[in-house]
Amino acid sequence: MSIEVVFGRHLRKFREGKGLSQEELAFRSNLDRTYISLLERGKRRPTINTIFALAKSLDAAPSDMIKMVELELATDITGREP
Amino acid sequence: MSIEVVFGRHLRKFREGKGLSQEELAFRSNLDRTYISLLERGKRRPTINTIFALAKSLDAAPSDMIKMVELELATDITGREP
DNA sequence: CTTTTTTTATGACTATAGTCCGTAGACCAT
DNA sequence: ATGGTCTACGGACTATAGTCATAAAAAAAG
């Protein structure tokens, strides 16, 4: 599974956990509404600054969001070298 | 202090701690030699994929590199709202 | 059902991440 | 001096992050 897809899924979880719409999250993070949608579907790769902005809007630590991606990628069985 | 400058400084620390040259790190991460230099000087903002690639080359967890940036930004006295 | 809110999708666009060429300076050894 | 290794920096370039306007599908809600 690619990094951006995993990140997108966790971004969505965080957002829904906060009860925010994509539009509200976009507004808080000074990002475009449609871009949040692209991120959640794994169609874009956020820069470090964007990650920090999103995390702040979600009252989360950027490192925690990254850690979740990291852990899911580590436990992902697909595409491991034999 | 900006996110990218802080990240750049920590990237350099990690790299020097591993005893790697910019060129070696670039090769391991499939990035350009000059781009590593730009990153370390805070002239570029890496995407999440680039962060993961760099971390892997440095035998570090991406979330740990982010956490160091996070902590330094949190303890940075400059530009805090009164 | 109808209405409203939310999300997906497209296409055209601007800003910037990341590449690739080179040059110059610093440092360390011959 | 000269050669090697390393990093800073330049400009020109390609790829993609992120914006904007809009339409339409999907979900909630009434």
TrEMBL record, chains A, B:
Residues 11-65 form the HTH cro/C1-type domain. It comes from the Bacteria. Pfam families: HTH_3. Keywords: DNA-binding. This is HTH cro/C1-type domain-containing protein.
